[in-house]
Amino acid sequence: MAHKIIRNWHVAPGTAPTDFDKRVLGFQNRGELVPKRELIKTPEQIEGIRRSGVVNTGVLDLIEKEIHAGMSTAEIDRLVYDYTTAHGAIPAPLNYEGFPKSVCTSINEVVCHGIPSEDDILEEGDIINVDVSTILDGYYSDASRMFVIGQTTPEKEKLVRVAKECLEIGAEAAKPWGFVGDIGKAISRHAHKNGFGVVRALCGHGVGLEFHEEPEVDHYNTHRKGMLLVPGMVFTIEPMINMGTWEVFIDEEDGWTVVTEDELPSAQWEHTFLMTEHGLEILTH
Ligand code: MF3
Ligand code: CO
Hints:
Layout: H1 19-29, H2 43-66, H3 73-86, E1 90-91, E2 104-107, E3 110-112, E4 127-136, E5 139-148, H4 154-173, H5 181-193, E6 197-198, E7 204-206, E8 213-217, E9 234-237, E10 240-242, E11 248-250, E12 258-260, E13 266-268, E14 271-276, E15 279-282
Antiparallel strand pairs: 1-4, 2-4, 3-12, 4-5, 6-10, 7-8, 9-14, 10-13, 11-12, 14-15
Helix pairs in contact: 2-3, 4-5
The structure holds 2-amino-4-trifluoromethylsulfanyl-butyric acid and cobalt (II) ion.
């Protein structure tokens, strides 16, 4: 069966096709998956997301300064809530699909979506992902960093470093008029070269006007091209890299916490990016 062309792109009603339209339509007519026009942000929207990203980065910088052994993840949550609201913004995770806190805190074998708690006390040698997402004037930004509590093992140090390299290498592979699939291909090559697994169950995503928009950005090699990357698109890359198997499960009790199947540690870094004519620009620096 010949595959059907998905006609996501339409010329703005009542106008002649621009050179930009023609370029996208060229890909669409060759059967490639192209974005809907609404995924191409206007300059005003990009400025809004950029301003949201400034607050989001401020939160992560604050956590970087304050995080220490003996602190609970609930204390991190309070710092995030207070800083964000003091800057006229809203923590995007709070009440998002029932998520109860303002930030995700994921320690060691927790891959992502860890829920802050008074009972989770950071210990020397822990590695933790703090995933911060901000809504400012209706615009969303999303970024996360790893923090090492005191001194950890060389293996965990390496995991944190390689996960960061995976984000950088994935971002480098994302080219204007290239494809989403290029990102996961590059990330998985680097992770596997280092003997690590790449989580498949969770992906990066379009972001900006909503928390999670199209496209899905897989971090493993799907062997598919995925969506065309067009200047003006805004999305995250957020590879979750496991010391052991790529397989994960969700804690049944809370319905959120994602944990590695083998309970070996996992690391993740994330930025929100704008695709430009020259490649990706980080909006959460
Ligand atoms: N911040 C996560 C992401 O990178 C999403 C977390 S959803 C939440 O996409 F509800 F857990 F906050
Ligand atoms: Co994200």
